[in-house]
What does this fold into?
Amino acid sequence: MRRHAELTKLQAVNGTEAERVKRDALGIAGRRKHHTRKATPLRSHTKEAGTHHRVYRFRFYPTIEQAEQLGRTFGACRWVYNEGLALRAEAWEQHRVKVGFAESCRALTGWKRVEDTAWLKDVSSTVLQQALRHVDQAFTRFLNGQTRCPERKKKGRSRESATYVRTGFKWVEDPALPGTGLITLAKQSEPLRIRWSRALPAGVVPIRLSVTRDKAGRYFVAALVEERIAPLAAAFLPDTQEPKAVGLDLGLASLVTLDDGAKLDHPRLLKRYAEKLARLQRELHNKVRGSNNRNKVRQRIARLYTLISDVRKDMLDQFTTRLVRENQVLVVEDLSIVTLPRPAHGKGRRRKARLNEAILDAGWGELLRQLHYKCAWYGRTLVIVDRFFPSTRLCSACRSKRPKIDLSVREWTCSPCGAVHDRDVNAAANLRVEGMRLYGQVTVGLPPGTTAPTVIRASELKEPLPTAC
Ligand SMILES: [Zn+2]
It folds into this structure.
């Protein structure tokens, strides 16, 4: 795929010529049919004031029939996603025509009429449209320069999932146990057998359901709801009106280091899993491709990956909740600064690199994601410091700057002032100071009574970096 910059340089074909190409070459039916029908107003996605979107995830155990139907649904979603992707690529590369979501949906109607793909009719059309919606979102992110070009989904490689919008499922709340109830998916006769590990907020109807099967073969349903979450009382430093702040340094030695010296380590459990994972992957390497034994090992690896991600998610959940409760302002560095080191050399290098990714990389992304939404829920502010801020090179005691230090240096002494620093604690302290400076800059102009924004991103403030002495 060409790079985005090259894509935008090319001139698009528009107007009647584009319509002709779409109709004749791409098989997208005209809009005429819909002209006679009254347009259905789009359901507004704006939230009511004080409410937040929240996702509740539950495990469920499908009957054999349901599992089969879901298998077909996942397959159809994957097929439609790939086809939607291909349609857009073809339209652009061969005809210089842009295809949008609505046109993809009309193309879908055409695919259903073709005999070879008539099985698409067995799957709820709203679910298939959501697959096209995902293509659309992936392209939007790509064209905004946020991600790489979307890729085809491969069977067994990508997570299996299907999204049901409001019309795609039935929800009957249990009056005896509010927040739990019966969920019946489109094209299924029986409700799902859900393990209600907790209740949804009583009285809400899920906006959207996302049904997934992970690589370990477990089924989950994630319900998106709109929930009223009361912000917490502001957290001030004792006897002042100064907001309480914390700096977080994301690292390799510890997952997170706080400026007060507290560290959140990678759980020991994960290390044990990592060893087991490495062993299984070596085993996989020695098995014959396509053999039954190889598949068994792959299943075990997949199960281990899901265990690792579950353990980490739980650990981070408790940690971020505590941080957000105790502090008003949380300061982190821009994630892009955290480039994974590649310590792996020689044999098994790629396997080791993947291991690093599994253990570390996802941990940071998940941490930031959780901080982000929890700050929004509870009325806190997340400050994201610029990636070029030299957090590890400044002395937090005298603010003097030292030359770049190697990752292996865990502790250093500042020569001008003699302070002895733990590398990560010092970085966290610098982040907190810089974060509070930005926070002050943003909040000083706010009229009294207004709350600070949920996220302050240094790279969006458009100001020169402070020059350290
Ligand atoms: Zn110093």
Notes: The chain has two domains: 4-32+53-227, 245-264+321-343+358-460.
